[in-house]
Write a structure and sequence with these properties.
Number of domains of chain A: 3
Oligomer: homodimer
Distance between the termini of chain A: 31 Å
Number of strands of chain A: 27
CATH class of the largest domain in chain A: Alpha Beta
Number of helices of chain A: 14
CATH topology of the largest domain in chain A: BirA Bifunctional Protein, domain 2
Largest sheet of chain A: 11 strands, mixed
CATH architecture of the largest domain in chain A: 2-Layer Sandwich
Structural class of chain A: alpha+beta
Radius of gyration of chain A: 26 Å
Strand content of chain A: 25-35%
Strand order of the largest sheet of chain A: 3-9-10-16-13-12-11-24-27-23-22
Largest interface: A-B, 68 and 67 residues
Chain lengths: 496, 496
């Protein structure tokens, strides 16, 4: 399948179309025959696997274990927690029958005799089935904490879907923890938010703003939702991970009590936290350019590609021999490298393809390089080329990968920081929000005002940030809409 | 939660009950609120993760990549391949609606307005949705082979379920490959069977018989199904992995053609192959004993547990200091070790618990050991104890783990080989099948005879083995039932 780079829309022309095309052309994912469900293609899945592996290691380092809970949830479970059902029971996939039978007219039809007594829902999230399970695991404070995570697929019947960003089925992890005290649960929720932020910054090279959601934007059933918010290259926000302090809501809904140290029965305290394949969308939109993907070296399935340029089989054999040593030494340094000496594609095609796929470093060796013991090094982030001696090239590449990792983080952070502004009047806000970016503004703390702003401008409160981003943003002021007092500025943006 | 070992039924009393109790008591899995669906608990999941990681490495070493395809399959897809629909369209979970709404009487009800035009089936296996996708990936022989694997959950509405062995939802991997020639596809199917056999023998320490299924036992839609068959401690067979040569059946059903090297359109050749959480059942039933699990060191989440015995906080502090060095050196050797100095459980309880959980090696250090620089070493497979010097204990333990791995394989193989017998008459067969084990017998090759034997004796043909297991089993003879000619003996057994 030919790579038709000339057909990749420019970001400046149509950002949304650029994204959609890039996901497909870079072989990351595609639409399936089932509405809203995607196929994650091998190259896209390889990136997701690297994310998974790293996150999983970080979860285990913080004392978590993996488990697996059922895909299907009895319908009645969803109604147990009043707010949860509001948030999740609407658009979901409902299993009503358990058998098909032959259709006299050909094919198969649902067997009406095989109707379930109670319908089952494909999990949109697993709090209910998990807390129903935890009930049997917890008797005493000695059984706490429970620190479980699950890697799973979930399903929400979204009407408007976009590959990775919003799909009916998506892959994610969901942590569900149970604690003896409110303080411990709150600390866990914050700890996992920090894990997500570390992962985003150190692996995805994506700067994020940590904060807490407004009541209106909370997870259905949570007392507090913490979030990491990233800025995409069109200035829109992408919520990249959330961690919820659930209080005792699910413990009460599923009657999960424990005997505390004072020998008294108490409801258990809970958290849940998750990131999903949506992170793939965030990764793509944070770094990529009009030539294609730009992948951070820490998550690139192929970190270095080596392409030979040759005029004869003999010359190729010489290059093969030379490259074999380089490949071996790069691998010994823990670098994933691909030597592409396939003869069915021209070098120019290969260059464009690996650029499109975001391989961080490309090495090219031709006849003159053989004579001079040199290699051409191209870095994907800046597209800069240089010719270097092969001596010590492996250590140079290793350092270059780290430099690229740091550079794209810095670039993304500079971009974001330039686009964090303030607005002091609603008019100013309305004008600025059209330019995209994050706006720090005063808000009176009411859902009413929040909804009005959303109605007027499509902007939502992304979070009340933990840290300060512009001078004075933690000082009190007056709501830009109502003039009522506001304790600090909050971040508004349009979002994915 | 207390470990009540005295309540573990003995294998000799009731093998089936022993298994069911062991799975639950060793914290591997439990029934969920959804009929036929299990919860895989953290300890059970940790073993599954080790299996996954190893299998995944082996798949990648043989050139495969991972991808992800949708959970839901349009109903009409199942009917495209005539045999496939017979095998899989019967008992499956059918999604008919995409929304719930508030019930005036409380709770939620299915919204009748949200009925799907075409019902969706939760994948019982993914050949149909994957071949529908491959159609767009394949144009020319240059696009082949495609060597994809998927780790996923699947759903088959089983009426009689048992934890790990047969559950409605289970976790598995399914490889789906596409090839330009019949020969290449056949070779792939056999290659993956060999990967499964290697995994079973080297990691699970479980001897398996490789062979091909009779037509009646083939996967629905396959031209050939290859299998690995293991013998459980009750003499029953457990099919542990299958690999299918699918010919061009799915390519024809989904119209997947390619331009071959001769510039002619041709249908693509296919394989599929899978192993599932059923392997957990196989692992448990192959090695475990009346004291609990016996885990092969290569898959044990905890390979070594160290338990202190102390009479004072001071003595514990001394043991802690001593053990810290041992733990560090064991970890440096790549051994996963847990030091359990928790003070809320007595040593006797810990011993029973780690035995129940199948930890391969236990080290115990008490006051006298401190004085003598010794440690008590217990190996789980034989329950033998010895006291050894701490000097060089780490290397000793490393070698011991390999010895245990080999020993339990050998023990399982000896057990199995003793229970492979022959039968030359149907009467002899009927008598012997009551004792369990594998019986090599002549069969006339017809499904009719096969079904009669199953009806009479509950025994099925497990496979036509590749290798010889008793002298003369590859020589021709006469069917034990009909007297018709038979080219070689095949393996019969009752099975899970």
């Amino acid at each position: 399948m030919a790579v038709e780079l000339k057909n990749l829309t420019k970001r400046s022309e149509n950002y949304s179309q650029w994204y959609n095309e890039l996901v497909v052309k870079a072989d990351l994912a595609e639409q399936s025959a089932v509405r809203g469900c995607m196929v994650i293609k091998p190259y896209g899945y390889a990136i997701w696997e690297k994310m998974q592996r790293q996150l999983d290691d970080m979860f285990k380092e913080t004392g978590h274990v993996n488990a697996y809970f059922p895909l299907l949830i009895p319908k009645s479970f969803l109604s147990r927690e009043a707010e949860h059902v509001e948030g999740f029971a609407k658009e979901c996939a409902v299993v009503t029958h358990y058998r098909l039978k032959a259709d006299p007219n050909g094919g198969v039809v649902v067997d009406p005799a095989a109707k379930l007594e109670e319908e089952l829902i494909i999990r949109p999230t697993s709090e209910t089935i998990i807390w129903n399970t935890y009930k049997n695991w917890i008797n005493s404070y000695r059984d706490l904490p429970i620190l479980c995570n699950q890697w799973a697929n979930v399903f929400r019947w979204e009407m408007r879907t976009r590959l990775f960003l919003r799909t009916a089925e998506f892959l994610w992890q969901e942590g569900h923890t149970a604690h003896a005290t409110s303080e411990e649960a709150e600390a866990e929720a914050v700890k996992m938010l920090n894990v997500y932020a570390d992962f985003a910054e150190k692996y995805m090279a994506m700067p994020v703003i940590k904060g807490v959601k407004s009541a209106n934007e909370r997870f259905a059933g949570a007392l507090n939702t913490y979030t990491i918010e990233a800025m995409m290259q069109d200035g829109k926000a992408l919520q990249s991970g959330t961690s919820h302090f659930l209080g005792q809501n699910f413990a009460k809904a599923f009657d999960v009590q424990f005997v505390n140290k004072d020998n008294q029965l108490e409801y258990v305290w809970a958290t849940s936290w998750g990131v999903s394949t949506r992170l793939m969308g965030a990764l793509i939109m944070t770094h990529s350019d009009d030539n294609g993907l730009v992948l951070p070296p820490h998550l690139a399935p192929i970190q270095v590609v080596i392409v030979p340029i040759y005029r004869s089989a003999e010359m190729l054999a010489q290059i093969d021999a030379k490259v074999a040593g380089i490949v071996e030494r790069l691998k010994a340094l823990g670098i994933s490298v691909k030597y592409d000496n396939a003869d069915n594609k021209r070098p120019g095609f290969k260059f464009a393809d690996y650029e499109l796929k975001g391989v961080p470093v490309r090495l090219v060796i031709g006849g003159r390089d053989l004579e001079n013991n040199t290699v051409e090094v191209m870095r994907r982030d800046t597209l800069e080329k240089e010719t270097r001696t092969c001596d010590g090239i492996e250590e140079y590449v290793k350092a270059l990968l780290e430099e690229i990792q740091n550079n794209i983080y810095q670039k993304a952070q500079d971009y974001r920081n330039r686009r964090i502004t303030t607005a002091d009047s609603y008019d100013e806000f309305k004008e600025k929000i059209e330019q995209g970016g994050f706006i720090l503004a005063h808000w009176d703390g009411t859902t009413e005002t929040e909804l009005r702003i959303k109605e007027d401008t499509k902007a939502t409160i992304r979070c009340i940030p933990f840290e300060s981003y512009v001078p004075g943003d933690k000082e009190p002021g007056k709501c830009m809409v109502t003039g009522k007092p506001s304790p600090y500025r909050v971040i508004f943006a349009r979002s994915y």
